[in-house]
Known about the structure:
The chain is of the alpha/beta class. The chain has four domains: 2-215, Thiamin diphosphate (ThDP)-binding fold, Pyr/PP domains (Rossmann fold); 221-334, Rossmann fold (3-Layer(aba) Sandwich), CATH 3.40.50; 362-532, Rossmann fold, CATH 3.40.50.970; 536-598, 2-Layer Sandwich (Alpha-Beta Plaits), CATH 3.30.70.20. It is 37% helix and 14% strand. The chain has helices at residues 2-12, 27-35, 49-61, 72-88, 113-120, 130-147, 157-160, 186-189, 193-215, 238-248, 267-274, 289-300, 323-334, 362-373, 407-418, 430-446, 486-492, 506-517, 553-556, 582-586; strands at residues 17-20, 42-45, 66-71, 94-99, 124-125, 151-153, 221-223, 232-237, 255-259, 279-283, 306-308, 379-382, 423-429, 451-457, 497-501, 522-528, 563-566, 569-572. Helix 1 (2-12) packs across helix 2 (27-35), helix 9 packs across helix 11 and helix 15 runs parallel beside helix 16. The mean pLDDT is 93.
Amino acid sequence: MGNAAIARGAMAAGLNLVCGYPGTPSTEVLETAAKANDGSLYVEWSVNEKAALELGAGAAYCGARSMVTMKQVGLNVASDPLMSLAYIGVKGGMVILVADDPGPISSQTEQDTRSFAAYSKLPCFDPSSVQEAYDMIQDAFAYSEQYHTPVLFRPTTRVCHGYASITVRDEAECLKNKPEGFVKDASKWVIFPRLSYQAHINIEARNVELQHVFSQYTRNTLTPAVAAGCRKGIATHGISSTYTAEALKGKDAPKLLKIATPFPFPEDMAVEFLQGLDEVLCIEELDPVIERELTYLCGKHHLNVNIRGKLTHDVKNAGENTCASVAADIANFMGWDTAKPQETEAPPALPVRPPVLCAGCPHRASFYAVKQAMKGKKAVFCGDIGCYTLGNAMPLDMVDTCLCMGAGVNITQGIGRIEPDTTCFAFVGDSTFFASAITGAVNAVYNQANMTLVVLDNSTTAMTGHQPHPGTGRTMMGQVVDKVSIEAVLKGVGVKTVETVNPLDLKAAIDTVQRVAAEDGVKAIIFKSPCAVLIKPEKPPVIDADKCRQCKRCITQLGCPGIVLKDGKVAIEQALCAGCGLCAQVCPFEAISEGGKD
């Protein structure tokens, strides 16, 4: 897997420490390093990306080789220390792996880390395949250490989650890095305006140097046109270069430029590529980074070349590229026959499967309890990032807003200030609570908000693969540690009413919501029940055909995939049911026995 190759490559480069925050498509990088750890590597899931980046910086200050992992939206969380670290620099090699998600497939945005690289003035490496990811991560550490700067490493989903057989270094050739340790030097490690001014000058000079250095970097490639006299060129990068190669297989390919270091841009190589061409097609995802750079270079060097791509609408400007889309774009650009081959019989349509909470998920019970408790009242339900975002789906319809991790707690406060007659709820998961919602709770208490914080505690980071967090009592190093109590944290910041209830005890859950929500000020309910995927399922319930009136309330109110219609009648899907018993508590005719009970 691409992520596994990146982890193995980093370890071959002498990695001393890796930390991060889970986020698809980056998660398996750190998990692979943890599994392959022989004890010489420190591995940590940090509470969020900001904490991880600062931890990695501290290690790099000591001369360690550190790697920090996250997805593209996680870079927003880490951007505060990142921008200053670009000025301070590092001693040991430091790679910040930011996995981008064109599509997006599992993200809120289609941010392009190549643009963030230019904004932060940090070198960026952009692998195009699993093998190149393994090799390039080692180059990234070397350049980072040589130029005393953190560097960005930007794989995309198709590289991260692609699979390939690769060639790896012999174990004897893998590097072993022994950190020197932290050497005190206030003129180096303490950021002051005067230091920053000089650092900025140095950064600009370094990036000009890297433009020339990267023109000689072997993973930036310039390939002459196959057909003599061809005055067209294609510039591409990353996984799009693989799609381009496939589209050009067996054809008279034009001049090709593959960019592996989008920032600083390899100017000398790019100018050489542009010479002798009339027009260039830029195939990239997501931002027109290459297109803008080539357009700028044409002006700078007075080259009369027509640069085409996203800005000219020759390539779509949103979503991920595919083999088919790239082939069509190239065919249009080259003027090739785009007639489709004779179509084969279409396969049968796949069934529609909208995203839904798992059967037995305690979040379904939590949302249902709040919905029943607030029936007939004016209420707003602010959601957050996690499995529970799926609470927005019908029939629950319990997520009115979702912006980014931790935002729901503060959005709730904003709505409450403008609509004081609204009962405001903020839903947040246990992992997200630790990652980014604590400050929102502090803000609410300090500013005397009127809201109910609902923590959906399923004792894991479920959405990204069940990683541990401070509330689980274990670390990625295998240590069993004291759990950080969410209830104690909330009481510690001044939330006076904090009640914990099992959401699968529906009557108790509804009563708790009604009682707590009626109080003034900031109050909290912790719905505590383990993720259904992590526990042994209970015995599935049984439907008593004599009692069942086919009202279908269990289906229309819960939307559980474990309850289905067979021959027009309600039935329990034995293979899916977790035996949580929620449907039995909802049935008005007591026609369903509770899971695991007679």
